[in-house]
Amino acid sequence: MCGVTLSDAVYLAAGIGALGAAVVPRVVFRRPLSMPMLFLAAGMLAGLSAVPTVDPVRSGPWVEHATELCVIVSLMGAGLALNRPVGLRGWAGAWRLLGIGMPLTIAATTAASALLLGWPFAWALLLAAVLSPTDPVLAAEVRVGEPTDDPDDEDEVRFSLTAEAGLNDGLAFPFVLAALAAAAAPAGTAGWAADWFLVDVLVRISVGVAVGVVTGRALGWMFFRARPRALRLSEHMEGFVAIGATFVAYGAAELARGYGFLAVFVTACTIRAAERDHGYHKVLHGFTEQIERLLTVFLLFLLGGYLVTRGLPSLTWRGALVGVLLVLVVRPAAGWAGLLGGGTGPRERLVTAVYGIRGIGSLFYLAYALGHSGHFAAYADQLWAVVSFTVFLSVFLHGATAAPVIQRLDRLRRSSPAPP
């Protein structure tokens, strides 16, 4: 009889995790719990039980690519879920969060990191940039659900948070690259800024958006309008095609030196616009959601193990304070400021500002930065400790409060008289 091996335990754990990913969201729905909370806690318990854990500092490339995959799959799902056509007025809340709230968040977090941790500008900017993307995937109550036929059925809170997350996962990249450029430049110089703005901001954003539009239109034609029925993939209703679309958009944008994250989200929105009320969107979205859920469960379980074995022991009270300030003060204040003057009421504005959830995108950006620059190596353990603690805080705080807050907001919205 064969002996028991580690791979046997891995298969068992993977099976339990996959089953849990299917069952847990239905069990915790509309309760002050979330699937990410439970799997992060499970990972922490496993770490305390001496189960082998992954150290992201020493497994950087592996962590980078695993989180990268999770982010691009979630971006495709987010873009396919949005019913509202892209526009200045319809997306006003998201544009304000991105154009005003996000820069304010990065500036305030940079200042807090420099003052509390005593880090140089480039290191403080890197931490702020890494923590700038939001991730509503980690709290289902505050994101848009599956695609529907009605462009007006999305409330402003869920729509703005989902659209913001879909775009700021890509728009955080220029700020991460700015930190890398500042760290590589001679001390006290800013000669890197002009090239950074021209190439990393203007050119690479434009390329990412352009690749997304072209790819989305080509795939939209192929899905819904191709003359040979064999190419008209909406006739076959196969969900795994969404992964193919995700990889094509991401790979094409990265090869063209654009931002692949932006390209994937723009591709998804463009595919949705090609035939907005077609049922195939639900099939594509459903498949990406399942893959995204499995990847998220896996990564959060590993993050929980890292937190109790290396992350929290390496965390200083000053680093923890930076995370607390970001989640409880900086993001709410910056989000509120960004939404001032918009069309949302004070209740919706407050909820949108508060629920800027940190998640997998932050883990990717930190792994990417440490893997592409040796200047931050001395701070790697501290950076991972602060970032992982901030994600932990956001998952538990937002996960525990999202359901009751959103339910209360929905009840108030239904009870309010409709505008004339």
Short description:
The protein has helices at residues 6-28, 35-48, 60-81, 92-117, 121-130, 156-171, 173-184, 192-224, 241-255, 260-274, 280-314, 317-339, 346-354, 360-372, 380-415. The chain is mostly helical and 420 residues long.
How is the secondary structure organized here?
Layout: H1 6-28, H2 35-48, H3 60-81, H4 92-117, H5 121-130, H6 156-171, H7 173-184, H8 192-224, H9 241-255, H10 260-274, H11 280-314, H12 317-339, H13 346-354, H14 360-372, H15 380-415
CATH top level label: Mainly Alpha
Major sheet description: none
Distance between the termini: 76 Å
Number of strands: 0
Describe the structure in your own words.
With 420 residues, this protein is an all-alpha fold. It has a single domain, classed as Na+/H+ antiporter like fold (Up-down Bundle). Helix content is 72%, strand content 0%. It contains 15 helices and no strands. The longest helix is centred in the C-terminal third of the chain and has 36 residues, at 380-415.
Structural features:
single chain, 420 residues, mainly alpha, Na+/H+ antiporter like fold, 15 helices, globular
